[in-house]
Design goal:
Shape: rod-shaped
Strand order of the largest sheet: 1-2-3-6-5-4
Number of helices: 2
Distance between the termini: 131 Å
Radius of gyration: 47 Å
Helix content: 55-70%
Oligomer: single chain
Structural class: alpha+beta
Number of strands: 6
Length: 179
């Protein structure tokens, strides 16, 4: 019984040993065809990728052109705004440094007419405030220790207007009137 088992196992092993290489030889040709197909697919995929790259480049170019147009337009607007600001500043400078008529000055300004500035308006980096129907530009830095809520008055001294405070005697802030 052992002999039959050994012989049948040996016969089976020989049969399998011969059939595997034969099967492998028959199967080799379809594998080559399968290998050739991926190359064709790879070529097609490369062409599609090239087309996509070209499309992406075109889109990037269009975006860059649009951005350049936007930048040019923004620069033109900035130049236009700067010119307009210059014209307004020139007009303001032309009117700045004027003189308030004497009768009007006596009725609204001087030591007897105190007020507090509150919140000055900043125009072109310079603080301004309004009082008595006139706009005034603060022409020098605001003194340390002074608050915009302090009581002040406008006076005309030696041909110029000054902001003074009874709370801070001896300090004068040069101001210009805008007519």
């Amino acid at each position: 019984m052992k002999l039959t088992t050994v012989l049948s196992t040996t016969a089976l092993a020989v049969l399998l040993g011969i059939s595997v290489p034969v099967f492998a030889q028959d199967d080799s040709h379809p594998q080559e065809e399968k290998r050739a197909e991926p190359d064709a697919k790879a070529d097609q995929q490369e062409k599609q990728e090239d087309k996509q790259v070209d499309k992406d480049k075109q889109i990037d170019k269009e975006k860059a052109e649009k951005q350049e147009d936007k930048d040019k337009h923004a620069q033109q607007e900035e130049k236009s705004a700067a010119r307009q600001d210059e014209r307004q500043d020139q007009r303001a400078d032309a009117k700045q440094g004027g003189r308030i008529p004497e009768d009007r000055f006596r009725s609204n300004f001087g030591r007897a007419h105190t007020f507090s500035i509150g919140h000055p308006v900043i125009v072109a980096g310079t603080p301004r405030f309004q009082y008595g129907g006139y706009w005034f530009v603060i022409a020098q830095p605001w003194p340390v220790g002074w608050a915009y809520t302090d009581v002040v008055y406008v006076d005309f001294i030696d041909g110029g207007y000054y902001l003074l405070s009874p709370v801070h005697p001896g300090i004068q802030i040069s101001i210009d009137v805008i007519l």
